[in-house]
Amino acid sequence: MKKIVFIILILQFYCKSLDSNAKTILKDSKVITIDTGIANLYLIPSKIQDKWILIDNGDSSDEKDLIPRLKAVGVNPENILVNIITHGHADHGGNSKYLQSKFSIPILAGLGDKAMHESGHNPEVLNAKGLFAHILKWFLNPNFSAYTADLYISKTMSLEKYGIEGKVVPSKSHTPGSLIMLLDTKEAFVGDLIRGSLGNKNQATEHFYMDDFELAHNDLLAYVNEGYVVFYPGHWGPLDATGVKEVADTKH
Questions:
Q1: HSE (side-chain half, CA atoms, 13 Å) at 128
Q2: Nearest-5° Cα angle at 144, 143 to 150
Q3: With a threshold of 0.85, does the pTM exceed it?
Q4: Residue 55: beta bridge partners?
Q5: Residue bearing the bigger pLDDT, 18 or 94
């Protein structure tokens, strides 16, 4: 895992001068992004005072840095109402067991990825896109601390109970149990359905791996057509709707 972190940090240093944030696309965005160097975590403020929703929690190699990172942006982990995991890969939900056991933070995950969550192991890498993806897969650590989510979903679910105006929508494109968060502010948290590019983190490009690229394209186009303007991927970003549409219009 240290090797993959090193590679990604080099790439992020290269991209730094091209960085922007969600407010460049959507002026009133209240989303907080935490870039772990491996993947993005997102914090969404709840209408319930001082409470938050956390999207993903990073790789288990980042456990010791997770709480300091949360506190650095003014978020006490005890004020997190729920941690939504976009999919069952180690770099997105690797600290779920830690957050459950230490802070009793409920974990919400997609039913289709239940076997991954509860085994603590990712199966053989998905369909790879491009030479770099084929090289990268040899550095990926498929193991993490197994956990059982407090809630598995397979249908669209409102986030109203958490004080969020939005919903969680299942997708079977990146993994069988991927989850997408769609806010009424027209912000979409799309996990690994798409990513920022290596040369410009705000330029949309296809993710390295996907169960079903065509289905991912269809999902993304649907969100663009529904008027979503900011797309938060699991890696790099944020992305605007124009760039996402260009990628999603690509035929396989």
A1: 12
A2: 135
A3: yes
A4: 42, 84
A5: 94
